[in-house]
Amino acid sequence: MAQEANIGVVGLAVMGSNLARNLASREGNKVAVYNRTFARTELLATEHPEAGFIAALTIDDFVASLAKPRTAIIMVQAGAGTDAVIAELAERFEPGDIIVDGGNALFTDTIRREKDVRAKGIHFVGAGISGGEEGALKGPSIMPGGTAESYATLGPILASIAAVAEGEPCVTHVGTDGAGHFVKMIHNGIEYADMQLIAEAYDLLRNVGGFSPAEIAGIFEQWNTGELESYLIEITAEVLKQIDAATGKPLVDVILDEAGSKGTGVWTVQTSLNLGVPVSGIAEAVFARSLSSQRAQRDAANGLPAETFAFDVPDKAAFVEEVRLALYASKIVAYAQGFDAIRAGAAEYNWDINLGAVAKIWRGGCIIRAQFLNRIAEAYGKNSGLLSLLLDGYFTDAVTRSLGAWRRIVAGASLAGIPVPAFASSLSYYDGLRAPRLPAAVVQGQRDFFGAHTYKRIDMPGVFHTLWSGDRTEIETTPSSH
Questions:
Q1: Active-site annotation holds for 456
Q2: pLDDT tens for residues 181-194?
Q3: Would 34 disulfide with which of 62, 286, 336, 400, CB 3.0-4.6 Å?
Q4: Which residues partner with 243 through β-bridges?
């Protein structure tokens, strides 16, 4: 088979097929396709003759069809399947060739795979691809890792298929080995938080404001013309407008209130815990999905007492605006926490990640695309060492004008017995961040009492341990040798 294709795709389920079609539609690309079951390869080539695919019967045919440096994108289920395809390609590829994993791999797996493949002289790129089936076909946001050398070949190909925002393709070389999949993981964590916050806003508008789903859809459409403009606000309005054909009810009222999960939000929380980064908004969103799925517990607890107080809403328009402001402030916190996690991951794994560039490639194609990503890019463009997004003037001002509404919404929801875990945790994080002194001193005293874990003092350097005594007048504090 002649070496004609400049790019190949392995794995032709919906995402892989759509990505292959996207690649084939761009000038200059010739695409080879391969699937373990040839019938799927044949079907894709038959249904889309305009793509001019090279349909490979075997993995050997696929490799033979690729021009050097051979470049192949794997779009198979994360885990053992990905490892198997990597092994097949690495057996046949030569030094300088490029293997790209475009699936939702855990970044530590990507670090391991890159190290193994690099030993053979082959480049391995973990590329986060966001945008779902439509994005894969029409233009996703792409977050590739790997070597700068591999990106010299791969970059123009990915730029040809990526979404475009304000004239710029939504792709950038994120960093080495697992950096791309790490950033995609954090993207998905922020996505969890954003979705939960929108759901909490809906719940408040429905159960406190008394608005119907159709009316809330209209409110969201209005919000989508301002600073909350985003893909998730847009599609939520569409969800709330939908009427169920079978019952005539709003579709949202017949959908079971148990949220599913693919696990990337959990990875974000676990990784952030390991890095010592508080991502409380993301964590509460993950826990909210978990709680929603505890059906037996929820049914059993349905009759538990709830001493609640009325959430007084004398002015519906004012209430809607306060929910909007609380949503915006909480959303800022979610993104601030996500970018904190990226910065910490970069330091831990020695990645040189440009946070402003990450914000820019999230402006189009991906699920969390939103107007205010431009403001995030500007913030990190002005100060790449910004300690927190909340310290940038634009976001400080945005939160400042939202604070009163944010507090009233969280307090009112608590009194009314309406769960707002993401709203409330985001506000608590903000208050903790700005507090001049936290009760952590008590925790350190407790730790030293039961475990001699030591503590530091505010008035002298060093590490200290107290010889705790039942007679509190005889406490001895000494510098620790720990």
A1: no
A2: 999 999 999 999 99
A3: 62
A4: 250
